[in-house]
Amino acid sequence: MKRFLLTLLMVLLLPLSLEAATYTLTWQDTSSGNNQETSFRLERRTGASGTFSEIGFVGADIQTYVDSTAQNNTLYCYRVKARNAVGDSGYSNVACAPVPAAITNLAVTSAFVLTWTDTSNIEEQTKIERKSGSGNYTQIVVVGSNVVTYTDASAVVGTQYCYRVRASNSVGDGAYSNEACLTPAGPNVPSNLTIQ
Question: Most Cβ neighbours (<10 Å): which of 31, 62, 137, 141?
Fold first, then answer.
């Protein structure tokens, strides 16, 4: 049983449609001689789980396929198998794309309430990171998909904090959001000083 390593490249077709995406799949042909393939069969599923369906095929020795039927902001997973007169090989590894889009408009209030804009519908979770002063970022919590607010109950009043967030799915982590910082305010200026 031959196995294939499938890699995936993404190219956006912005001039054609803001909704269209093109994925170029490549793999390594490991058959030769008596077990030479006659074709490669490409399968795709939508989402992290579900049923694969054949979307196309290419001839022997071709190691690239372009899927131009994909839509932006939709998670797709692909696999490939070889075929000859004897039958089919096993499937390659599964390659998925894309990672979620970057979260935007991160803000934090004086009560340590974070809000942001969810720009993706393919995230499975959102990772929230915080740093204190000039320290390093550390992840403080993971919230579910489509969550757009979080209250940092572990924050200490009077400490400077900065936050960043990113969406994540089974493919990987999206880019970080903007950084939002909260600088503790000093006490109010006294007023009405008098001498008696």
Answer: 31
